[in-house]
Amino acid sequence: MAEVIGERDGILREELLSFRHFVVETHSLIQKEKNRKFYFCRLPYQNVSHIKEYAGYIRDRFESFVVIGIGGSSLGARMLFESLTETNHNLKKKPKIFFLENVDPEKFKSVLEQIDIKNTCFNVVTKSGSTVETIANFSVILSMLKKELGDNYRENLVFTTDPEKGFLRKLGNQEKIKMFDVPPLVGGRFSVLSPVGLLPAAVAGIDIEELLAGAKKMDLVCSIEEHVEHNPAYLIALSHYIANMRRGKTISVMMPYSEKLSSFVDWYRQLWAESLGKDGLGQTPVKAIGTVDQHSQIQLYREGIRDKIITFLHIEKSDVDYKIPEELPEDISYLSGHSLHEILSKELLGTKAALIKSKVPNITISIDRISSYNIGMLIYLYELATGFSGYLYKINPFDQPAVEEGKNFTYALMGREGYQEKLEEFKELYKEKYKIEVQ
Ligand SMILES: O=P(O)(O)OC[C@H]1O[C@](O)(CO)[C@@H](O)[C@@H]1O
């Protein structure tokens, strides 16, 4: 706040409160939109027994589980897996879980080397049913499965896709493959609490009901409280908006003091970037990890260009911890008897103090521990903050029109039917701009 870091960089309480009427109006619009644009708000209330049941079957039957998807069709599931299972899950537990996102042959090879394809369930996740990377990875796997298993290949597949539209749904219907629905009103980056994220999470042994309970709790907090200072989602949205539009903080750094929350930031990056980056507006989300990036980025954050607002994620208690011995040489005896997690927390406090001294705006979100419930709360918090931000920036946070152009050129280059005109446009562009003739 301005009272701590001054008015040039900090937010004035009056400034926040001046949005009071806007917040009340937007709050009631959001409540009305919960069966339409804000349908993701309904996901915490769904019945998940069918997901749990099928996940149970997969857990009993397969040694490995591979999610084939990209963007909103994988980041959420990966975030749940990496934050809520043991760090070395794949070394200790079954089924081992993998993610095939990119079309990078090296990555593909490394996954293949760690699985026995006959004992692996592949979850192909794509809302549109046609994303190039997903369909390409899937096609290679499909031919391998057919070679290994003949007609029984179907048993090793489960699709998560639109309930009616798209190539994958058509194929699933034809081939009688087990399928789960992506709710049509929920876009990829808001879909982690649907089967997109819940099936892989349940297969990994995560308590998905607790996850939804946390999201419900956050929905409750944010539904009854329309006062800007008491609604955490609106507070996050407004403080970022004011920092961006009135203080020039065009970059939002998210810095968890926890390696396990690294992919929470990957998920947040898509949510914030793809939802709000429109009409020349938005804020660039950046990942930093405490304490590691203290030794890499903090010089810039404190004394470099003043374009950042920083969110720290603090975990109060760690499920594991290691104590530093009492008997240490005098030079380092200040560490005696302390623990690793204690140092992590103190370094966060130290970094925060240093940023405050340099008048860098920052927010701290504390959770008592990394649990399904708390991650459910955080997911819902950021999804709602993003949806609310759409009203602040006066943009539609639920589409991604600018992503399509690159996809269309790729289709054209890959020779997809109906994209001949796009190919001509591509060739023309290269000729004109780069003086390169493309064949
Ligand atoms: O689920 P799909 O349709 O494969 O899309 C994957 C991702 O691709 C995007 O459309 C961007 O290209 C994201 O919005 C989406 O999450």
TrEMBL record:
Pathway: Carbohydrate biosynthesis; gluconeogenesis; Carbohydrate degradation; glycolysis; D-glyceraldehyde 3-phosphate and glycerone phosphate from D-glucose: step 2/4. Its main location: cytoplasm. GO terms for molecular function: isomerase activity. Its EC number is 5.3.1.9. Keywords: Cytoplasm, Gluconeogenesis, Glycolysis, Isomerase. It is found in: Cytoplasm. InterPro entries: G6P_Isomerase, Phosphoglucose_isomerase_CS, SIS_dom_sf, SIS_PGI_1, SIS_PGI_2. Pfam families: PGI. Signal peptide: none annotated. Gene3D superfamilies: Glucose-6-phosphate isomerase like protein, domain 1. The active site is at residues 274, 295, 407. It catalyses: alpha-D-glucose 6-phosphate = beta-D-fructose 6-phosphate. Belongs to the GPI family. Catalyzes the reversible isomerization of glucose-6-phosphate to fructose-6-phosphate. This is Glucose-6-phosphate isomerase. It comes from Persephonella atlantica. The gene is pgi.
